[in-house]
Structures are given as structure tokens and as C-alpha cells.
Amino acid sequence: MVLISRHSKLVLSILFAFSGGPFSAHAQPVGPVAVPAVKAPPRAAPVASDKAMAQLFENVAFWSQRGQPTIAVQELERVIALSPPDANTLALAARLNFQLDRFDAGEAYRLRLRQLAPNDPRLASLAAEQKRSPEGLRMLAEARKLSGLGRKEEAVQAYAAFTKGKVPDSLAIEYYLMLGTSSPEGFEVASKELPLVAARWPGDASFRLAYAQLLTFQDASRSAGIDQLRELTHVPIVAAGARVAWHDALLWQGADINTRDQIDVYLKENPTDPVLEAKRKEIQDSLPDEGLLDRMRAYEDGAAGRAEESEKGFLAALAYDPKDAESMIMLSIIRRKQKRLAESDKLIANAMEVAPDRHDEFVDTIGFDPKKLAMEQSAAGANMGASAKEIAAANAAIMAKYAKIQSLAHEQKYDEAEKLLQSVVGKTWRSADYLTLGFIQKGAGRLPDAEKSFRQALKADTKNADAMVALADVLAQSGTRDEIDGLYGRAREVYGKARNNAAVQAINRVQSEHLRGKAEFAEDQAVKLQMLRAALKIDPSNAWLRLDLARVLQTREATGEATQMMAQGVSGDRPSNDALLAAIIFAEQTENLPEADRLIARLPAADRTADMQEIQRRSAARAEVQQAVKNANAAAVRSALITMAGRPDPTGAWGNEIGRALIKRGDKSAVPDAVSAGFSSTAQPTVQQRLSYAGILLAAEQRDDATRMLDGLDQQNLSAAQQGSFEQLLNGIALQSAYQLSQRRQGKAAVASLKPRLAVEPRNVDLNLALSRVYQANGNTDQAVVIANGLLNENPNNLDIRLAAIDAAVSSGDSARAGILVADGLEKFPDEAQLYMRSGYLERARGNNARALADFKHASSLRQNQVKAHQDAR
Fold first, then answer.
1. Residue 824: Cβ within 10 Å count
2. For the chain, what is the mean pLDDT?
3. pLDDT band at 487; cut points 50, 70, 90
4. Helix ranges restricted to H, 117-168
5. For 209-223, what is each residue's pLDDT tens digit?
6. Which of 95-109, 131-145, 451-465, 647-661 has the highest mean pLDDT?
7. What is the distance between the alpha carbons of residues 57 and 76, in angstroms, rounded to a whole number?
């Protein structure tokens, strides 16, 4: 199976096991129709142990949580193929297919669920799913785009227009996580609705994970979210995602004692995390002594009603400092409640003796005046002046009040917290006080007030980096992004000078992810590339961002740079697992199986999935095939490969490698013999094998053999992934047929070969593009122009469509239109050789021979650079 990374939420097409890509007119500027190279869907082992099934379910969750439902469905299909599906599996399959806009497949699973468990509570929500119209899909895409750009209020409106107030469960996670970051009101709605959805899906921990993540988006509920994420790290299916979210939430937490303790819990279970270790050290260095920290925790526990923990805290504070009068007084109150009066009286006496100047304060605290004790200690009290201990005690009292403020804020008692802060600060406000006030106001949802307080904090201390980050966060939530980059830049500089590496990294991550989100929806590929480069420069450790950039470079034929960049991500002795996984994905997608094999070997054995093991097997098979083709005798090579093809090949992957080698050698006519050998060696050829062999036959231009290989397949029993492969193969057969007929000037027959597939997929770009080229090649230029222009209006950044529209305009005699399309194309694709070639043809037709020659030379130079890049990448 092809591995795809987490970072984008775009739905990907079904991927196949044979190299190449979907139909592209890029290689055929006029007339011809190219053939889709076909890959086999993921393969299922014939027997699955309980451990293997558990791994498969983990794979489903892994890809689902990374915004890759296509791959999650493929993994789920393997689960269904290996064991009788239960209600949870069928419900999940239905929901994921609905999420992918595969309504028919989702409905089929829903009906199977209804037959198996007619009273299942999820049936009602699944039945509410509706087949999405083209307009509905456009609205949904727009909502996702706005969300990705951070325009949350507009995104909420767009989602509302799409859902009409009824959010389907298939969109619940993405919608409520977006809504939760849109506004305090949005967070309140999301935090109420998401648990209700989770209750309908008790067997799917993804909803629990999403809810825990949602809680971490707000300061007031983040600690509760962190606790839930910690619990979910012990649920295997979502453990990986929960651990990442837990880690990130700790980075968002303020630098205080609670955060330090939370980091301790994380590091106990995940002992090697240099980022959090660094943050813990910075927090620890900024905190007062352990005795005061114990006392602050004890106050918080007492305020929360945790009497036993509070008692332990005050005892710990006394163990650290036996003369801690404040802890004595608080412990005396606990002892009195426990009816241990003698101990209580002794503690009060000791406290009065240690800190006689605090007599009145202690009297107010305990509620009575122990006169006898006061008289016994009065002499000692009179002889003691203001000392360092007394100052420390006063400071400790203030610290306790600040701890109480923090505790109230955590309990969402914002009004009480603000009143107590006002009373503690009085008339002299420091930068830190304004910062605390701002966090309270932000937690209460009063963003304008919080913004004002954070600005006051910065006014009082222009180098308060925490205030800069807090202000940037409030501005981002309120949709005002003008100042954000400047604030982050200043904060990064301050944190850098203070060697607060954890804070610098957190800022880098926020900024790079913001750029990455904008790039995801950028229509101009040059702009997208620029954004991704800038994002990676900010956060070079982000493996998934690196993979996004490599993919864009790959589409622009900068293969050498993409390969080199991915190699940089795994350089060194201990690259992260994410870096290795991203590099494996890129190597597999670019058919560099030896590199993928080498990278997989660097992963810990426990992290190697069944799909990675399949890559290793494919790599070994390819190496064996490549060894066989080293023979200089073409006949000997053909004979050896066909003999090798006779091995049992239930998934078709072995035959695929052999067919690939034959095609590469220009021996396409031998592919049917190799396929026949592999087909006959399997007692009961599988659906997977037939689909894979049909794909390799089609790639070898053996269209009739490919058609016969598909004949008789029972579509009713195909999995969703297999159905997708089947449909693409039918499209490929139609495209190849149209090309061959068009080449023979049989225009009507070529059009007729495309019509049945267009009836099934009327908006399919490849089929429509082929139809336009068939019309053009056979003189029906008006039809070709209408189709090409219509496609270009819907896909202005598709180079293949633009080239077809230019060719159609030239064929119809509309050179002015062609010139406009070329000029616009060169702005969008300044490094495309084919556009310069077309520009040269137009200039030559106008008599501008010098300009035409310059265009042809530039096109030649660009093409040479592309060829060299491909060679360097090999």
C-alpha cells in the first residue's frame, strides 16, 4: 500500500502499485490520449492473527486522525476482508466513505450494518447522510479552505450553509475542532456537541481524542484536556495521536508550577523528550524553592476540596522548612477538623513563636485568639524586628494569593479571580499583573479586554515576550492578523536571548503551520512553493511540512531538489520517527523502493507496519528482477522474466514488477505472456491479482487483454478500494481506445468510446480533456474549444488543461485567445518548457522570428534542466 502523510486534509485519489500517474496530456500536446498507469490496491494477508488485526485497526486510526480517510478506508477494507465484520467496523466503514463523498459505498455499509444490528444507535445518524451535489462539494471545499486560512468566522458560516444546521457525524471532528477555535461561543457549542457524537460511537476512540484536543484549545480547560489525552495514550488505537496532542498542549501551557508538574507526568511515561525537558528546566529555574511550591500546591488542593492531598502538601512544605509558620497554621486547621486538638494547638503555638508579627493574620485565619500562646511568645515577638524571614513570609502570603487566583481561573471562576487579583495588586500594576489579568479575561471569552490588558503588559515591559505571544494569540482568535508576525518575531528574539529554546520552537511551529495552511489552499503553484519554503525555513524540523514541499517540487519536475531535501530531513544518527516516516512515504511514492527499504530498516522494529513490510518485499522482488535484466541478450531476459512470473502471485505485485521491467525494456508485447504465466500459477486468481494484471496490461497498451482480465468481476463484492481501481481501469481503457481510434482518424468511434465513461463520471477532467483533444484532432474545433474552455474555467491552474485550451484556440484560428492563455500561463508557470514552445509557435506565426527563437531556446534550456534533475535523482 502507498503510505501518505498526515498534514493536509485534502481527499486523495486511490493509489496504485504500478509507477506513473493519472492520465496527463502533458506528454501529448496535440491529439493523443495518454494511459493511466495503474497501481494495485493494498494487499491482505491470507491469515490474520489477533495481533495482526490489532495492528490493522491501529493503522485505520492512524490515517484517520491524520486527515487521510482514503488510506484509512483501505486499511479498514483489509480488516473486513480478513474477518467477519462486526457492527463497529461496518459503522466506521460507512462513516469514512461518507466522509470521502463515496455515498454509494457508505450507503452499502450502512445497509449491512442495519441487517447485522437493526437497533444500532448509529443508524439514525448514518441515515441522515446525504449524497453531495457538485454545488455541495464546492461549498464544503470553500468551508475547508476558509478554515485552513484561519478565517474562522467565515468558515463557520460556510459550514452552516453546507450542513443547514445538521452536522453529519462524518464531518463532526473537523467541524467541531474548527468551531472550537472560532470564538468562545463556538468553543461552548463544540464542547457540548462533540461528546454527544462520541457517545454514538463508543467503539471509536477518535471522537474521544478530538474532544480532548478541543479542551486544550482554551486555557481554562486545557488541564482537563491534558488529563484526558494522557489516558488516551493507553488506548492503542489512538495512542500515537494522543501522545502528540498531549505533547503540544504542554508546550502551550504557561510557565508555572502546574505546567512543571504536568511535564513531569509526561516525562515519566516518555523519558526522552529534549523539548519538554528544556521547558521544564526553564520553569524550574524561574520558580521559588520547593517548600513554597509544596505550600502553593496544598492551597490549590484545599481550594479544590482535595483534603488529603492538601494535608500532604503542607507536611511536605514543613519537611522542607520546619519553620514554615504559614504551613503550620494551615495544618493546624486540618488537625482541628480531624479532632486532633492537641496537635492543632501545638502547631499554632509553634507558628506564633516562629512568626509573632503575623499574630493578627493567624488569628483571622484560625478564627480565634490563643491568648495563652500569644502571652508565652510575646517577649520573643517584641524582641524580633523585621527580618529576612519575615519578608519571606510576607512574600509567601502574596504567592499563596496568586496561587489562589490561578486556582480560581482553572475552575473558570473568572470574576472571583479578577477581584482577588485587583485586591492583591492594588494601585501598583506590573507587567506580570496585566498579563495575569489578560489571561483571566481571555479565559472568560472577553477578547477585547484581554487584548487591552496584554497591550498594557507590553507598555509596562516592552520586552515581555509572554505578553507578545499572548497578544498574538488573541489577535489570531479575533481575526486581526496584521501584527501577528511582528509580535512573534520580537518574542522569538527575546526568547532566543534568554535561551528559551522551547518557546522559540513553539513560535516557529505556530508560524510555519499558519503558512502551511495558507499554502494548502493556494491555487498558484509558485505561490504555494514560496509559502512552503518560507514555512520550512521557520521550522526545519517539521517532517510533514518537508514532505508537502517535496511533493510540490515533484509536480514541478524538480525531482533532484525534492530528493535532496527529503534526505536532509533524515540525516544524522537519530532522526525522529516522523522524519523517517515522511521520507519513506516520499521514497515509496517516487518508486525509490531501495531507499524506502533502507529507511524502514532505521525505524524501531515495533514501528514497522505491515505496509512497510510489503514495501520491503516489493523492494526485494524488484532487486531480483533488476538482476535478471542485466543480461545483454534480449531473448534470454524475456525468457528469464516470464519464467520468474510463474511464481504464485495472489496479489499481482510480483507480476507487476516483471511487467514494469518488460515495458522499460521496450518489450511490451511480452507482458501478456508474463501475466499469463502469473495468472496460471495461482490456483484461484484473486480480485486483487486481476486488477493488478489489468493495470500492467493497460500500461503495456494491451487494451483488449486488460478488458478480458476485468470481464466477469462481480462489482457487488468489490471493496471500496477495489471499486475505485476498477473504475479507473475502465477509464484508462476508454482513454486508450479513444487515443488509438483518434490516431486512425476514426473520430466518431473515438468519441463513442469515451461516452459510456462520461455518462458515469460527467465531470471527470481526464475524460473531458481527452474528448476535447479527440474533437480537435478530427477537425471539430468548435466542440474542442467549448470543452477546453469550460475545463479551464473550473481549473485555471491545471497546466494540462491550459495547454489543451491553447491548442484548441490555435486550431480554431483564434490566435489572440491563444496568446492570452499563453501569457497568463507563463505568469502562473514561469518554468514550463511547453508554454514557451507554444509561445514560440505563436510568435513565429506573427512573423516575430527573433522572439520565437528566444522562446524556443528558453524552452530547450528548461527541458534540459528538467532532464538533468531527473537523472540526478536516480
1. 14
2. 76
3. confident
4. 122-127, 134-148, 152-163
5. 989 999 988 888 888
6. 451-465
7. 7
Spatial separation of the C-alpha atoms in residues 499 and 493, rounded to whole Å:
10
Residue burial 786-822, b: 16+ Cβ < 10 Å; e: rest: ebbbebbeeeebbbbbbbbbbbbbbbeeeeebbbebb
| CB neighbour class for 425 (10 Å; exposed up to 12, middle 13-18, buried from 19) | middle
In the block, which residue shows the cell 513554597? Answer: 292
Angle formed at CA 195 by CA 194 and CA 199, multiple of 5 degrees: 120
Q: What is the pLDDT of residue 660?
A: 83
Please check whether residue 532 is in contact with residue 302, taking contact to mean a CB–CB distance below 8 angstroms.
Answer: no
Helix or strand holding residue 635 (H, E): helix 634-644
Cell numbers placing 320: 522542607
Residue environment code for 360-391, b if the CB has 16+ CB neighbours within 10 A, otherwise e:
ebbbeebeeebeebbeebeeeeeeeeeeeebe
Dist CA 342 CA 726 (whole Å): 85
Q: Could you tell me how many helices (H) and strands (E) the chain has, helices first? A: 46, 0
Instruction: List CB contacts of 113: < 8 A, sequence separation 6 or more.
Output: 87, 90, 91, 94, 120, 122, 123, 126
Q: Residue 847, Cβ neighbours under 10 Å: how many?
A: 8
Q: How many CB atoms lie within 10 A of CB 154?
A: 17
Residues 318-364 pLDDT 10s:
888 888 888 898 888 888 888 887 888 888 888 888 888 777 667 76
Cell triple for residue 745?
Answer: 482518424
Q: What is the average per-residue pLDDT within 155-172?
A: 81
Q: Please tell me the chain's helix, strand, coil percentages from 3-state DSSP, rounded to the nearest 5.
A: 75, 0, 25
* pLDDT reported for residue 149: 66
Report CA 258 to chain centroid distance, whole Å.
29
Q: Write out the DSSP string of 311-362.
A: HHHHHHHHHH-TT-HHHHHHHHHHHHHTT-HHHHHHHHHHHHHH-GGGHHHH
Give the total residue count for the chain.
874
pLDDT recorded at residue 25: 29
DSSP letter (8 states) at residue 779: T
- C-alpha to C-alpha distance for 661 and 631, rounded to whole angstroms: 13
DSSP 485: H
| Contact assessment for residue 586 and residue 550, using Cβ atoms and an 8 Å cutoff | yes
Tens-place pLDDT, residues 679-697:
777 667 778 778 888 888 8
Name every residue whose Cβ is closer than 8 Å to that of residue 835 and which is 6 or more positions away in sequence.
799, 802, 803, 822, 825, 826, 829
pLDDT (mean) for 840-866: 82
The whole-number pLDDT of residue 14 equals: 17
pLDDT tens string 94-105: 887 887 767 778
Q: What is the CA radius of gyration of the chain?
A: 34
